[in-house]
Amino acid sequence: MELQRMAYPKRSAVKGAGSPKMSLAKLLVFPVLLSIAAAILWFVYYSNAPGITSAITGNGAGVTAPITAASKRELLDFHMANFNQGWARYSDGVVATEDGGVTWLPAPAEAASVPQANGDEETAAVSWLSGKDLSPPSIQVQAQEYAVHKSQFLSRNVGWAMLVSGTAAEAPLWVTVDGGTNWSSKVTADIAVQIQAEHGQILAAVKETSFYAEQAAAQKAMEASWTLMPDTASPGDVVLVRHQQPGEVEWEGKTYTLEPFGTGYFTYLPISIGLKAGSYPIGDTVLTITAKKFQTQYLQVTKQMESMKQDTSRIQADQKKIDLARSQSQAEFLGVSNYIIPVEGRLTTPYGYTRYVNGKFDSSHRALDLAAKEGTPIKATNDGIVALSDMLYLTGNSIYIDHGMGLFSQYAHMSELLVSAGDYVKQGDIIGLVGTTGFSTGPHLHFTFWAHNVPVNPNLFFDTTPFQWTTPAEGQ
Fold this sequence. Notes:
By secondary structure, this protein is α+β, with helices and mostly antiparallel strands. It has five helices and 30 strands. It has helices at 2-46, 189-209, 215-223, 303-308, 312-325; strands spanning 75-80, 86-90, 93-97, 105-107, 138-141, 144-153, 159-163, 173-176, 226-229, 232-233, 238-243, 247-251, 254-261, 264-270, 278-282, 285-289, 296-299, 346-349, 353-357, 360-365, 368-371, 377-379, 384-392, 396-402, 407-414, 416-417, 424-425, 430-433, 444-451, 454-456. The strands form seven sheets. Strands 18, 21, 23, 24, 25, 27, 29 and 30 form an eight-stranded antiparallel sheet that branches. A hairpin with a 2-residue loop joins strand 2 (86-90) and strand 3. The radius of gyration is 35 Å and the shape is elongated. The protein starts with a helix and ends in a 20-residue tail after the last strand.
């Protein structure tokens, strides 16, 4: 009893002392509870927005989430401006996405007043990859067919479908990444990756298409397993090969690696000047080589000039510089515009001439000699990076420009060099002046192209690009 009497006043004392504090605590906690309750209501309210419900695929994969009262919100309209941005207007508000539908957040009503373009601006240059003509009347989910009120395909694979109001489906807005075979009511992490991959593929296709003469030629090349540009050539020419997959091409005893660019894989194939006419298989297609005759040229030079070619040590030292400069090339096509003739001059020696010097066989002239007054400006034939700019023994003041993917242009015998190694030049930039340095009988420009360290016919490039060497598409 003694313990009970002692305990009672203690409990009373604690209660009496703590009454004001308990009231204050209630006042502080109450707003917090209200905030938590509001957050829960907000989540439930918007949980049925596109991209939040669970995934259901047309083949039955995935898990169906319980349909809540919030999932009955009425979708009035939607629009995807591109692969990342879009909005959806419900009867009770607007939501928008900036990440391709992964998340949708409340947005002002003005967000839904954006002009409703087809969302295919990015595919305008690659119309055959566009989904603008796709408009399914219904979609199928777990063997259940649902009528479509509105659909929008951003490409042949990625599309969105809004179901007819009142449909008993899990959600009113669905997405596909395989052209409509499977549909999902949520942009899962895997679907988001596929959407971005598709977007990247579209951008790569647009970039590659810009190199072709016309969209029809681009489509023909991109849809073929193998494409040869051109498919008929002559000795001394060069062919651009495109394949849909990475790999290698065996050609005239050498192996050429197909390098990625755009949506394909490319390499240049230089054709030796002595290759016989005939048909040569490359992948699933055939390269036709036609016969070509080259004329003969006879030069008379002084004994002193003739002796220059006997100094093999200096020649070999220069060749090491040249080989090093041409050993690395940019992994893309740098010349977007047409190639131009680098100097206004008179053609004195065409490409491919068999040359005799002082009555003795010298070589096949695998370049163009363009005679002009000393000091005449020399232009870069196209965009590129200067790989070498130096005084060399036989070719005098010389420049090599890398145009990417193993293609280089060469300029020799100049009186002055106006660019340095590492400089980025644009088509038409003045890079040097005509001269007669090195093994030269008069002021001229010795000009040619090198594809994988093999000199090839420059005439193929002028006023065009290798992508325009394709055979015209049918009906064009």
